[in-house]
Amino acid sequence: MSSQPAPVIGIDLGTTFSVVASLERSGLPQTILNAEGDLSTPSAVYFEQDQVVVGKEALKAAVYEPESVLQHVKREMGKPFCDKPIRGTRLPPEVVQAAILRKLRQDAENRLGNVQDAVITVPAFFNEPRRKATMDAGRLAGLKVLDIINEPTAAAIAYGVQAGFVSASGEAKQAEKILAYDLGGGTFDVTLMLLEGCQYTAVATDGDVQLGGIDWDRRIVDFVAEHYLEQHGTDPRQDPVSFQMLLQEAEDAKRALSNRTSVTVRFAHQSKRVQVALTREEFEALTSDLLQRTMFTVERLLRTARLRFDDLTRLLLVGGSTRMPMVQQILEQASGKSVDRSLSPDEAVAHGAALYAGFLQRGSRAADRSLVVKNVNSHDLGVLGIEKATGMKRRRIMIPRNTKLPARSKSSFVTRRANQRSVAVHVVEGGDDSGKNATPIGKCLVSDLPAKLPAKTQVVV
Ligand code: ADP
Ligand code: MG
After folding, report:
1. Which residue puts its alpha carbon closest to atom 25 of ligand 1?
2. Which of 77, 86, 101, 208 could form a disulfide with 141 if both were Cys (CB 3.0 to 4.6 A apart)?
3. CA nearest 160: which of 199, 207, 129?
């Protein structure tokens, strides 16, 4: 007897927009429309007096009541509390993300019936605490999180299956070396992947958690605000309501410039108006350093992997901001290759997550051949110790970044005192050699050392 498998969903929990996809009967992914009838839901949360509102309405409320709306909380994942208080209380970021996930889940349930199993995606550059916070947000929203996968990995699966270089069961037809360039609303992510048969290996990842479409919007905000200041003597950026309205205008102008070569931005503040013409060329000049920053990251990644553009078989564009013509131009210019734009860049991640959720579900249900997704650690993993010569804190890297996971590593340390019975091992992620800026991710105590060992006994960790 076989019953219909429970619906699984893939969730692209974005910094600015979130997208949910499920699998059709045919096995192909499909974006689920939200209750408002849109393909994507703004990742904004409005705390009204007695209820929490997520999405488009929250984004509107941000204009008139910015103090009650949280946005871009994904950038704060892993911190204990969001910077911005809501009515005097600072909320944990995962609680805010859970509110978004709850809305996404409810909207999915409107179309699919009861939904529990989900795969949620995160930027490849997310460290362990941020991934864990994402898991927690899923659980708080009542989801069973089957797995968390990197957004570029999900995108590669979606492109692979839908563009036909991967079969419906997830098997690559020939070996591929793929670069996924993902420029979203608030984060930039670039990943190099190898596809061989059913094995997807992320070989190297890099990115910038503080760079995205919002930075392009702000350049237009500054451009218009400077004009306003010149004409009327006040700065609309000082007023939170005007700032939000201008930011909205700026985003609209930016989107329009992806299809047209010039726009007029109209904006009113304190009942005085400005009209500013902006051409695509001017916009590209205003933001060329931002675009350049993404290319530095791409080139650094290729250097790390000891590859050149010529070695790549495919370039995938992911994220809504890759709709800006400047992105495709610079990538094609630098690589001498054409980029793959066969999928809608802002749905690819959710589609890949849904496909992966389906593979996982089948893998756990039957001896079905399922997909193997291998990852690398995106930050150095090391332990903190005290350097003998200087008595200073030192970090020793045990698993360098971009090592294939799972990984093992051994390193020996020496005890400081005679008859030392235990050694505390502080495991950290990232940071520099003195341990500065490292994120503590765990601590363990080796506490069963035999008695009466002399000082400087070797302990292997
Ligand atoms: P995220 O996953 O980071 O939330 P998305 O991939 O959904 O982001 O991309 C959102 C970003 O894409 C926003 O900054 C939005 O302004 C931008 N964007 C969407 N469509 C366009 C377009 N046509 N032209 C330029 N930018 C766009
Ligand atoms: Mg995204």
Report:
1. 255
2. 101
3. 199
Ligand 1 pocket check for 14: Cβ under 6 Å: yes
Q: Which two tokens stand for residue 312?
A: 């790549």
What pLDDT was estimated at residue 369? Answer: 39
Q: Is 344 in the pocket of ligand 1 (CB under 6 A)?
A: no
- How far apart are alpha carbons 156 and 139 in whole angstroms? 26
User: Alpha helix locations (H) across 280-398?
Assistant: 280-286, 288-304, 325-335, 348-365
- Per cent of the chain over pLDDT 70 is 92
Rounded distance from Cα 17 to ligand 1 centre (Å): 8
Q: Which atom, in ligand 1's list, is nearest to the CA of 214?
A: 14
**Looking at 63-67, 400-404, 448-452, which range is the least confident one?**
400-404
Residue 255 beta carbon below 6 angstroms from any ligand 1 atom? yes
Q: Are 15 and 75 in contact (CB under 8 A)?
A: yes
Task: List, in order, residues 6 or more apart from 296 with CB less than 8 Å away.
Answer: none
Cβ neighbors of 176 (< 8 A, separation 6 or more) are 160, 165, 193, 194, 195, 196, 313, 314
pTM, entire model: 0.79
Which residues does residue 414 pair with via DSSP β-bridges, in sequence order? 458
What mean pLDDT comes out for the span 171-193? Answer: 90
Indicate if the pLDDT at residue 367 is higher than 50.
Answer: no
Work out the pLDDT band at 366, boundaries 50, 70, 90: very low
Q: Look up residue 212 and give its two tokens.
A: 């995205």
The answer to whether 373 and 356 have CB atoms below 8 angstroms apart is yes
Cα-based torsion angle of the residue sequence 125, 212, 162, 131 in order, rounded to the nearest 10 degrees: 30
pLDDT tens by residue, 220-256: 999 999 999 999 999 999 998 899 899 999 999 999 9
321 lines ligand 1 (CB under 6 A): yes
**Spatial contact of 179 and 295, defined as CB atoms under 8 Å apart:** no
Of 146, 151, 134, 133, residue with least CA distance to 205: 151
Residue type, 402: N
Q: Is 213 in the pocket of ligand 1 (CB under 6 A)?
A: yes
Please tell me the distance between residue 179's alpha carbon and the centre of ligand 1 in angstroms: 19
Q: Which residue owns the Cα nearest ligand 1 atom 20?
A: 320
Residue 385 Cβ < 6 Å to ligand 1: no
Mean pLDDT of the chain: 88
The token pair at 92 is 């944990």
Residue to mutate (ligand 1; options 39, 248, 346, 351; most atoms within 8 A of CB): 346
Inter-residue contact 152 to 182 (CB < 8 Å) = yes
User: How many C-beta atoms lie closer than 10 Å to residue 410's C-beta?
Assistant: 7
